[in-house]
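Hi team,

Filling in the usual template for the complex we talked about on Friday. All components are listed, including any nucleic acid strands or ligand strings, so the model treats them as one assembly.

SUBMITTER: L.P.
PURPOSE: interface mapping
COMPONENTS: two
RESIDUES: 654
SEQUENCES:
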Amino acid sequence: MDGGGLTVNEHILAALPLLFSFEVVLWMLIGTVVGVVIGGLPGLSTTMGIAVLIPLTFTMTPLAALGMIAGIYNGAMYGGAIPAILLRIPGTPAGIATVFDGHPMALQGHGRQALKIALYSSALGGSVSAVALLLLAPPLATIALKFGSAEVFWLAILGLTTIAVLLSKNPVKGLLSANFGLIVGLIGIDQMTGVERFTLDSIYLISGIGILVFLTGLYAIPPAIDLAAKAMLIKAEDLKRGNTGGNEPMPWRRLFPVWAKSSVIGVLVGIVPGAGGNIASLLAWSEARRVSKHSDEFGQGAPEGLAAAECANNADNASALIPALTLGIPGNAVAAVILGGLLVHGLLPGPALFRDSAPVTYGFMLSMLVTSVMLLFVGLLGARLFISVLRLPALLLAPMIIGMTFIGIYSIGNSLFDVAMVALIGVVGYAMEKMDIPLAPAVLAVILGPMAEAELRRSLLISRGDLGFLFSSPISLILVTLILLMLLTPLIKKRLSRSAKLAVPATLSKQFEND
Amino acid sequence: MVLVVASAIGLSIVLDYPDASKIMPVAIMLGTLVLSIVWIVQCLASGELFVESRPAIDWVVVRRLAVAFGSLGVMLIGVSTVGFFTTYIIMVPITAWLLGYRNIKGIVLGTVIFCTGLYLIFVVVLNRPLPVEIWMVGA
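RESULT (copied from the run log):
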């Protein structure tokens, strides 16, 4: 049972009619197709795709919008496998391990089969992950609902610390990014005292900077500039590899055990904030190689290697949303942008989401499952189309992304100032990326900063200014301990990635370091 | 160093806020100040600031970056003065050409599909009120 008095099953049943309305199904389908295209284009990321397309969802119903976002998320993760297999260029960071065996398969004339294995693995991994989300998120939210203001304050700080520390090689840069977001989140009139903060005496800043303006600027403009600068050239003959083979029998018996293990690895890694699909796929690939009877084939075109990597990076998708939806702590950058999307539609991420907006929340979780299944059909039917998408010239796409971003932002607030802010924030974001400063902590800070401040004030009001109140409950103390532990995790992460690296053959890792 | 100066100035400003409004801003500014100093110390310790041989500058990339940033600025001015679609019809092909894309058929086709698509989505389907295009003023 949850706060609303209904069981999880009843909530799921209540969400089904909404989910399977014509509008929602259509947008889930469109989202999945667009997602595969975005993931398939090297240089474009899932995060960018969602950020650019969120303005289009503004006039949709919340579930249609979230269904489309779910489609983009799942679709893009598979889409990343297409250039990874055909061109040896991972379309998304999570596609790195896909290259190890996917590209050799394509070179050996099994391009079509490699794409099929990637598709089945992605759909399966995504489905398992969505089921995990449906099973784990509601009970976690029920526990989180019992939190008081002090606990929510520490939870927000834990979320910020987690992302700032885990998403950056250097925690100092991650924390600086979080501080940037906190400042942006405080811009405008303080609702409690009426004081203007960080407005630089500009009337345009009195109402603050919208979350959508901020995240679109950070996630849409820098990739467009990068796309223009790198000017990736794709040879037509490389794309022909996608049409080679395909009549070979699928090695189901070899794949099933790999899928079972890799989906569990992906789900578990996804739940850990900051770990990400790239770590999930590398760990799953290493594990598949460790237990395989054909371990010598790994890195030279082993179907199990490809299946493990693709299954795990999609199994990371929905599970990364577990901390995001229940606690307001996104597991990765995409989850941070999805939180922004929720806010745009008036849904405040956190445990209350499951109580106050249950039909939409459960509908969204179910849409992660439905779009994973949809992906299978979309991928099989549109295989040729998705390969030909790689022909789109990056140099023409770059100004188009900028144009799309500008008009999208203007269409929401009818404000040219917002358009200028997007451009400015985009330039700042590009500079941050070049300095290896992660963007996700800034986005999360914009969301969590005002929430943390409100809860801190409430705590101080309840305790009449006694700071000791913040440390008075066992949950608060646990959260404070977790924050301190989180600050130590860079050392643990370094060890984990080192062991994953060791498992990857030396020749392969060297090859990719040189790239 | 810029961050250190900016956060120090920011700190001096937020200290003047009323007590109820300054807890978070002061904490953030102090945090930024400390973190910026730690970052500088890290750079000094790693010798990052004193590397003698820096990688050679790729002038083609620099030129493309200049075009991308320039295009961003021109498009920004364009949408606020001549309208979205007029700007895009002019700037998308020019930017692509300046970046080095030389397929004229591709440029024309791409621009037409892009602008038509945007018009259909934002004007026809979503019915969003966009600024009037310059050539439509008075029409």
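MY TAKE: The longest helix of chain B spans residues 19-46. Residues 59-136 of chain B form one domain.

Thanks, L.
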